[in-house]
Each structure stands twice: as structure tokens, then as C-alpha cells.
Write a structure and sequence with these properties.
Tyrosyl-Transfer RNA Synthetase; binds adenosine-5'-tetraphosphate; 3-stranded parallel beta sheet; Rossmann fold; mainly alpha
């Protein structure tokens, strides 16, 4: 039998989020996601974090590199403070509920919804969409499944994921309406802090991204101190000194980006950064920013390198996380099959 109709208040708070192991993680991933994932562990809410390897293969991935990137991303989570004993940490493909629920959602979501997703448009811009994978188009339905397989109520993400989260809410609402249930929560995005969208160091109008062809556009979590200093030194800026207030950053996207990065790394507001550094030339501000970045990122990179020495231990952690994730998601997806009208011969 389908679960009885619930009121929204019946959904207990649960946080879910994920990162694609589609390349080395960046400072954008750290400030927009990883750092906040670790902080969320202190809020008394269950936290589930996933390396979404099935999303990664929506564009071609070399199999050996994908395995390496997945382990490296797991190491980045742990080095950033995600504790596998306090959070559930696993890779998506080890929990089949994600793919199963994604198929149901492929049948709930509408083609028009998917076609309007800006990430689909961005990733296929100027390219022949006939040759894009079907998976890339359906990606947001899999993301909705990732979240709703756990009936997650809150999802910490960077600003670029806002539209996908709105689609997750639309899918949950349509499923609930279509089947006359109140089975899925209407998930709330958590987009917070000074670094919800860290921009490219080469172009202040573009998001810092692990798949940007230019390595100079991003700080990788594996970059050493010299590389970090060099990348900030070469970061695109304008000739003006830093202003004394936020109004002065209008129409200066590159300057605003560096101020926001400084604020997020230091755990202070952008206003405070300008209070301390207003009037400074970039020649002085960039080295201060590089020193701060090295002091925050250095210990994380060192810990990642240490963890990467023991691949078997990382795989063990991911397997244990997958078992715990499966214990939550399996009954939820079994009930979905029941709601949809599929015969379950074994009791659910
Ligand atoms: N530049 C960014 N600033 C703030 N947050 C960011 N995130 C990514 N880039 C930034 C956040 O990191 C989480 C994981 O994102 P993802 O790797 O799964 O996918 P993405 O958003 O598409 O990130 P990339 O780096 O641009 O990956 P590719 O290049 O593979 O597409 C999300 O919470 C995201 O918001």
C-alpha cells in the first residue's frame, strides 16, 4: 500500500547535496559547497553527501580518470571537514535507487521544462545538440531523484544550481498531484554566504568551473602555494584601487569577485573587506588574498594528498556510506513503485 497522505510538517529535516567528480575540484566548489557541507554537520540535521558519478558521465569521461577523480573528490570532502562518521558520504552509482527514481521522474518531467534549463543551454551553446547525450538533457531529473530518494528537505548549493532545484520542486509537486499523495517534500535550496557564485579569474562574467579549458581561470584544490599566488597575481582586474564600499564595486565584476573570495575565505563580510582594504591597489591586495588562500587551502590540499595515498580506505568509506544511503533510499523508492502502480511481489 502507498504510504498514507502526509502533511508537509511530517517531513523531518534532512540535508542532501552532491558534487560531480568530472574533474579536479575548484575554489568555487570549496566555497560554494564543501565548506558549507562541513558547517551543516553542526546544525543538528542529518547530512547526506554524494559524489554524483552518474552525472559526470553525461559528458565523456575517461574511465580511469573518473575513478581517480571520484576518489580525489571524496578526499576533498573529508579534508574540507565532512566527517564520514557524522555524514553519509558515498558515490551515486553504488545506490541504484537514484537511477530507478530518475526513470520515474523522466516520465513525470516535461520536455519543455528540461529544454529551458540554462545549464543545458550553456553546455550545448554553439554546439550541435543532435550530438549531446540524452543524459545531459535529462540531468535535472536525475538530480531531482538524488534529492528526493532521501526526501531531503534542504539542499545547500551554489547559485548556479538554483534553477535545477526549482525543477526538483516542480517534479515533486507534479508527482504529488498526479498521484494524489503528499509523498515528496518541496525541497528548499540553501544558497548562502559571500561566495555563492565564485567567478573565473580570467573573466568576471563567467563562473569558475572545473571544466573551463583555461587552468588559469580557477584555483584547483590541488594547486600548491606558488601556483595559487601566480594565478591570483595574473587574475584579471581593472586599474582602479579598491573602493571603500560595495557601491564602488558596481560594474567591476573582477574586483567584486576577488573581494567576495577574500570575504568567504576569511569568514567576514565583503563590507568588512572593503573597510580593511579600501583604497588599496591590486598590487597589494592580490598578495594578501593569495596568502589568505594558501593559509586556508594549504592544510586541505595536504590532507587530500595524505588521504589519496590509501585508495582502498577511500573505497571502503564510500561503500559504507552507500550501505547507509541505500537503507534510507530503498524503502522510499519501493513505495514510489507502489504509488505508481507497479507490482511489488515482496512486501515493502
Ligand atoms: N564557481 C562556483 N561558485 C560557487 N559554487 C559553485 N559550485 C560549482 N561551481 C561554483 C557549486 O559546487 C557544487 C557542485 O557543483 P558540480 O561540480 O556538481 O557542478 P557544477 O555546478 O556544474 O560545477 P562546475 O565546476 O562548473 O562543474 P562542471 O565544469 O563539471 O560543469 C554545486 O553546489 C555548485 O553550485
Amino acid at each position: 500500500m502507498a504510504e498514507p497522505v502526509q502533511t508537509p510538517q511530517a517531513f523531518s529535516p534532512r540535508i542532501f547535496s552532491g558534487i560531480q567528480p568530472s574533474g579536479g575540484l575548484t575554489l568555487g566548489n570549496y566555497l560554494g559547497a564543501l565548506k558549507r557541507f562541513a558547517e551543516k554537520q553542526n546544525e543538528g540535521i542529518e547530512t547526506i553527501y554524494c559524489l554524483v558519478d552518474m552525472h559526470a558521465i553525461t559528458v565523456w569521461q575517461d574511465p580511469a580518470k573518473l575513478r581517480q577523480q571520484t576518489r580525489e573528490a571524496a578526499a576533498a570532502f573529508i579534508a574540507s571537514g565532512v566527517d564520514p562518521a557524522r555524514s553519509i558520504l558515498f558515490n551515486q552509482s553504488q545506490v541504484t535507487a537514484h537511477a530507478e527514481l530518475a526513470w520515474i521522474f523522466n516520465c513525470v518531467a516535461r520536455m519543455g521544462w528540461m529544454g529551458r534549463m540554462t545549464q543545458w543551454k550553456d553546455k550545448t551553446a554553439g554546439k550541435d545538440t543532435e550530438n549531446a547525450s540524452l543524459g545531459l538533457f535529462a540531468y535535472p531529473a536525475l538530480m531531482a531523484a538524488d534529492i528526493l530518494a532521501y526526501k531531503a528537505t534542504h539542499v545547500p548549493v551554489g547559485d548556479d544550481q538554483k534553477q535545477h532545484l526549482e525543477l526538483t520542486r516542480d517534479i515533486a509537486m507534479k508527482f504529488n498531484n498526479d498521484f494524489g499523495v503528499n509523498y515528496f517534500p518541496i525541497t528548499e535550496p540553501m544558497i548562502e554566504g559571500a561566495a555563492t557564485r565564485v567567478m573565473s579569474l580570467r573573466d568576471g562574467s563567467k563562473k569558475m568551473s572545473k571544466s573551463d579549458p583555461s587552468d588559469q581561470s580557477r584555483i584547483n584544490l590541488t594547486d600548491d602555494a606558488d601556483t595559487i599566488a601566480k594565478k591570483f597575481r595574473k587574475a584579471k582586474t581593472d586599474p582602479e584601487p579598491l573602493p571603500h564600499d560595495l557601491d564602488g564595486l558596481k560594474d567591476r565584476p573582477e574586483a567584486r569577485n576577488l573581494v567576495n573570495i577574500y570575504a568567504a575565505l576569511a569568514g567576514i563580510t565583503p563590507e568588512k573587506v572593503l573597510e580593511d582594504h579600501g583604497g588599496a591597489q591590486f598590487g597589494a591586495f592580490k598578495p594578501a588574498l593569495a596568502d589568505l588562500a594558501v593559509s586556508v587551502m594549504g592544510p586541505i590540499t595536504a590532507e587530500m594528498n595524505r588521504l589519496m595515498q590509501d585508495a582502498a580506505e577511500i573505497d571502503r568509506i564510500l561503500g559504507e556510506g552507500a550501505d547507509r544511503a541505500n537503507a534510507i533510499a530503498r524503502p522510499i523508492v519501493d513505495q514510489v513503485y507502489d504509488i505508481v502502480g507497479m507490482i511489488r511481489s515482496r512486501p515493502v
